[in-house]
Amino acid sequence: MDEITLYAYGKINLALDVTGRRPDGYHLVRMIMQTVGIYDIVTVRKAPDSHERISLTCSRPEVPAGPSNLAWKAAAAVMEHAGLKENISIHIEKNIPMAAGMAGGSTDAAAVIRAMNSLFGLKLTQEKMDAIAVKLGADVPFCLRKGTYLAEGIGEVLTKLPDAPKAYVLIVNPPFEVSTAAVYRELDGIEDPVHPDIDRLLSLLKEDTLDAFAAEMGNILELVTIKDNPLIGEIRDKIMSAGALGSMMTGSGPTVFGLFDEPQLARKACIAFSGEAENGRCILTEFIR
């Protein structure tokens, strides 16, 4: 086998809370993470004739192709861990919106780890892949998996949860970016913010009832991001008006999603959002288990 191609799935947060801050500055979080059916296509190939240890190309020219790319860093980390001497090339067909709170860079990195493990027969255990992944970013260990997980610590402590109820997921990605670091800094200055009830949501997951779960979702970072970017709140309200059972921003934004139990309502909402340029990109998908 000289090359391998994998789907690198994106994620949304069904709940996000910030519970504290470590002495090193990293924020402690408690989140319910969910894989969704939007994916990049990552191909890793042995490249014995290449003049570079790691070469990377992407369908989106604005994506960095060198050591600042998380997928490139993942390849270098696996090489160092396993003592690999071979050259490789990586190509990413980019479909996940960038800087959108959907772990696009993290999931590409996770796909590279999994691909190299198979391509070179490294036989890395899940624990060893996690150890490589967490050094790259807090979301990367989750992206080595699929489904519904509780993420704690800085996001790297993962607990498998019951599958989220079946839903049609409308995702709206506004045409601007949000600085995650700036959002967390501003959140630190808010006294007594209202926290989502993660324990309540964990209990509702066991009941497998979409309407009750969707109504209880919460993201503490909305306190900052929506205040600074009112369009996000307007999109969330429009999604609810279109018949969603719940709507929320994922990550630090700006992407907003809504959960529907009726496919025709979800499709109608997606068509409506797609016709309004200021909303940005609109995608209809489902949960991946």
The N- to C-terminal Cα distance equals 28 Å
The helical percent reads: 25-40%
Radius of gyration: 19 Å
| Separate helix tally | 10
Strand content: 25-35%
User: H/E element string?
Assistant: EEEHEHHHEEEHHHEHHEEHE
Strand tally: 11
Structural class: alpha+beta
Quote the average pLDDT.
Answer: 95
Overall spatial form:
globular
Q: Which ranges are low-confidence, i.e. pLDDT below 50, for 5 or more consecutive residues?
A: none
Biggest β-sheet strands, sense, barrel:
7 strands, mixed
Walkthrough of the structure:
- 34% of the residues lie in helices and 28% in strands.
- With 289 residues, it is an alpha+beta fold.
- Strands 1, 2, 3, 4, 5, 6 and 8 form a seven-stranded mixed beta sheet that branches.
- Strand 3 (54-58), helix 1 and strand 4 form a beta-alpha-beta unit.
- Helix 1 (70-82) packs parallel to helix 2 (104-119) and helix 8 crosses helix 9.
- The longest helix has 16 residues, at 104-119.
